[in-house]
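Here is one chain, start to finish.
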Amino acid sequence: MPSTATEAPAARLAAVVADVLGTDWTPPTELDWPVVFTNEAADRDLTLYPDRKNRRLIFELSPADFDRRLFAKYTPDLTGHDSIDGWLADGNLAAVADALAVILERLIELPLPERVALADPLQTERERLAEQARELAANAAYFAAGLIWSQPVGDDAQRLATLARDLAHTATRVDELRGSATAGTAGRF
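Its structure:
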């Protein structure tokens, strides 16, 4: 898919990645951050988003249930651009297609980490919930700093919304695992 300078940054990157991945992967229907490609046959999701603080792209490969993940990072040459967003908006993304192809090929070919069988699934979900809460807090602090320094925060808000959805999903799972012990306390403040 050729990209044009009038496309949104997420759409431009998605077009390059779609060309690299080929037809095994389904491109996202929403072209906003994070961009998520799916491979139904392999039960995998590939999530892409900019890491603005470190001026790089993050690629996250996981099963559809998000219990195991692999990450890859790509730091482009931002010469002539003041930020990763500027590079994504009007940089020559086709020029980095070969580098992205190598990164994505290696990431996709790696086996996902093995599941660790824990005796207590509730404890596992609690640990995941705590990690998600820490990540949400860190991103919220970064978002607040952007507000204070009058930097663009729309994409950061989208990332916060995604993190909050993941947190809510895990919290619901924790409540389900707790079972009837908490059923009588629903709705209390």
